[in-house]
Amino acid sequence: MKVAVRYFSRGGNTKKLADAIAEAVGAEALTTEVPLSEDVDILFLGSSVYAYGVDESVKKFIAGNKVKIGKVVNFSTAALVRSTYKQVGKLLKEKNIPMAEEEFYCRGSFGPMHKGKPDAADRKRAAEFAKKIVG
Ligand SMILES: Cc1cc2nc3c(=O)[nH]c(=O)nc-3n(C[C@H](O)[C@H](O)[C@H](O)COP(=O)(O)O)c2cc1C
Which CATH architecture has domain 3-134? Predict the structure, then answer.
């Protein structure tokens, strides 16, 4: 099974999850600036919200995708909203890319809010989640 990990992270919070997930599934965590170069069965796609929207880099990554993706598994961090599932889901739907119902979300630090998040326990949960997804 081919598994890939892509993420966008301005401040490093979502990267922490991406690294934990990538290690758990034996893939490399690359940013959304790096397009997929071959078909994949599962793509773990990490994002966050900045003033209510996902970053342009994530939008471009999805819109510009040229390979077959079996399914996208969303993961995200944010301070207030509960995940990027809906926003990313809308972008994927426009490209007819399937999205798994399962997702991983946790709080991400933002100024004085949620200091230290994602923490070690979040990273562990993310790794366990990813292992379960790939079976
Ligand atoms: C410029 C900016 C705008 C943000 N806007 C929101 C927002 O609208 N809603 C929210 O829940 N979190 C918001 N956040 C918090 C981020 O989603 C949170 O810090 C996230 O974990 C950042 O992930 P990253 O470190 O991977 O970039 C914002 C953060 C920044 C820096």
Answer: 3-Layer(aba) Sandwich (3.40)
Is the CB of 77 inside a 6 Å radius of any atom of ligand 1?
A: yes
Domain residue ranges of the chain, discontinuous segments joined by +:
3-134
Query: What gap in Å lies between CA 61 and CA 5, rounded to an integer?
Result: 12
Mean pLDDT across 32-49? 98
Pocket test for ligand 1, best of 49, 54, 115 (most atoms within 8 A of CB): 49
Examine the pLDDT at 74 and tell me if it is beyond 90: yes
Q: Is the CB of 13 under 6 A from ligand 1?
A: yes
Reported pTM: 0.98
CB atoms within 10 A of CB 4: 23
Is the minimum distance from the CB of 31 to ligand 1 under 6 angstroms?
A: no
Peptide bond preceding 112: is omega within 30 degrees of 0, i.e. cis?
no
